[in-house]
Structures are given as structure tokens and as C-alpha cells.
Amino acid sequence: MQDPTEFVKQTSRELWIDACKGIGILLVLLGHVSPPFMKFIYGFHMPLFFIISGYVFKKENFQISFALYLKKLLKSYLFPYGILCFVNLFLEMGRNLILHIPDKADLLYHYLCGIIYSRGSQEWMPNCSPLWFLTGLIMALLLFYAIGNRKSRKLQIIFILFCPGISYIFYFMDAPKLFWNMDTALMAVLFISIGYRCKEESLKFEKSKYCQSSTWYFFIIVLLIILGSVAIHLNPVEHVDFDDNIYGNLLCMICGALSISLGLMILCFRTIKHWNQTLVKGICYLGRHTVFFMGFDYFSGSVARQLLSVAGLYPSWYWVFGLKLVILLVGLFLWNAVMERIAANIPNAKYLRM
Fold first, then answer.
1. For residue 100, which phi and psi values (nearest 5 degrees)?
2. Which bin fits 127, alpha (ψ -120 to 50), beta or left (φ > 0)?
3. pLDDT band at 209, cuts 50/70/90?
């Protein structure tokens, strides 16, 4: 009989990253139902994804041309972005038709502009506003690529610190959102850079004597979580929102986001081999399908609220979250089943199997 931890041991390096992403997407789904601890979730859940993106960034990317790297990003992120946006647009226009909502042509034009510009709000991107993250990530990774190709280490550091400063000025001036969330990308570069640096340092740290001490790791994780929680609590804004460039106090925002994100990453890295195998598979399954969950988060939430209203259980946030998650899992199963059937006839179909 196979050791129940063998599955974890075989690919633990990849699994802990998927586990982090799985926890992260659960927090995204949870944050969008407005629980009492919403400020805490918003304090780090999007920076966590940017840090992970930096961690998994391959050094070999710096060796390829800008055009080739751009093509790679567009295939990986823009292709599913477009598909999911237009599926949601079709669903929304169908709903408007059923409910006899007037000015459908104006709404269609409005939504198309929002999708092309990638303005992540319900007003501009029906049901799929969380997908702003994909265009923002494209812009942030392109910036990181450009900065990383500078030969001077000092110049790289200057740019990495300069970019968040510009993003914070946009927030301070309450400036309109930029195309493809370029203003958010300027802040995200900092977190991507830290994630990339963490990978380099972790390889060195694994060889040190401290890496073997569970007590030391426990102390660091607790310290990071406490520090991050205090920073998030002290941030004067109602909650941080990367989509709308709402940061509050810059130092509190960065400290809170980094501390909690790194604490969670270390926790997953060190303890995942001790988790229940079924739990690992479930969390990692969520982590490998984050794009789908982002794409249908609001649509599933809307369906869940309507069903719960009929049952008299709305607006309890925990019921909405639970039912929304069930709807998303069923939808993901059906989506991948359909994509499997039509994959042979669609170029780049692998990017549609979310």
C-alpha cells in the first residue's frame, strides 16, 4: 500500500506553490462576499499572487527577446482573458435579454470598451472584473523583464523602488485608471521582484543550519503573521484595493502584504508534507485553476445570491461563499469536459483547460 505522504514527497516543491495559490484564490472568493474580516484578506491576497509570480519567474526569460517574451505572456494570459471575458459578456447580455433590460446596444458597447481597456469593475466588465489581474500581471511582468535586463544592479534597484512610488502618486492624486492596469502594475513590480529574490535566497538558505530547525521556522511564521496583521489593522483605509489603486499608508500596505504573504508561503513550504493527502490534492486543485475562478467569481456569486434569496438564507456571507464555491467547482468540471472535446479544433487549446 502506498504511503499517504508519498504523493506530497514526489512533487512537494511544486505542490506548496499550488497550495499557496489555492489558499489565495479561496481568499479572493471569500473577500468578494464581504465577510467581517474583509480588510485582513484585502491586505495581502493580491500581493500574494504577484509574489508567487515572481517566485516562479524563470531566469531563462531574461535570455529571450522582448518580442518572444511578450508572445509568451499573451498566449498564457491574454488568450484566456479574452475567452472568459466574452463568455461572461454573452451570459450578461443573455440575462439582460431575458429580463428585458433596455438599451442593450449601449450596454454592449459599454462592456466591450471595459473589456478592451480592462477596467476591473462590475460597471465595465460584467461578472468577470477580477480578470483585471491578468492584464495587470502582463504589464507588471513586462516591466520586471525590462528592469531585470539592466546590467547595473543599482539601476535595477532604483527602478524597482521608483515604480511603486509612481503608482502611489497615482493613488494620492486619485488619478483615473490606466490602460491594462498599468498603474497597478507599477506597484506589482515590487512584489514580483521580492518573490523572484526570495527564490534565489531560499536556495541558499536551504543549505544553512537554520533550515533544519522547525522551532525557528515556527517563530518566523508567527512573527510575520503578527507583524502583518498589525500593519493591516493600522492602515487607515477601509481596505486595500489593488484594482482601484487604494493603498492607504504605503508603509503599512507593503509591510502587511509582504509579512502575511511570506508567512503563508513559508508555512506551506515547510508543512505541506505533513498535510492530509486529500486536503493537499483539493487545495492544489484550486491553485491550478485560479484563472477560471477569477473569471466566474462574480457570476457564480450572483447565482448563489439569487438561489439563497429564494431559500431565505441570503445575505449570510458564509452561505454565499459555500454555494458559490460549489457552483464554481461544478462549472470547472463542465468547462474542462467541453474543452477536452473541442481541443483538437482550437489552436492553443491548452490555455483554455483551466
1. 60, 45
2. left
3. low
Question: Torsions phi, psi of 194, nearest 5?
Answer: -65, -40
Residue 211 has a CB neighbour count (10 Å cut-off) of 13
Chain-centroid distance, C-alpha 258? 15
- How many CA atoms lie within 13 Å of 126's alpha carbon, on the beta-carbon side? 18
Quote the CA–CA distance of 296 and 85 in Å, as a whole number.
9
pLDDT tens readout for residues 51-92: 999 999 999 999 999 999 999 999 999 999 999 999 999 988
Q: Find the DSSP H helices in 235-316.
A: 250-271, 277-287, 290-311
Per cent of the chain over pLDDT 70 is: 90
Cite the DSSP H helix spans in the chain.
Answer: 6-10, 12-31, 38-42, 45-55, 66-73, 79-98, 104-117, 132-148, 153-172, 182-205, 214-234, 250-271, 277-287, 290-311, 317-342
Pairwise CA distance, residues 39 & 256, whole Å: 11
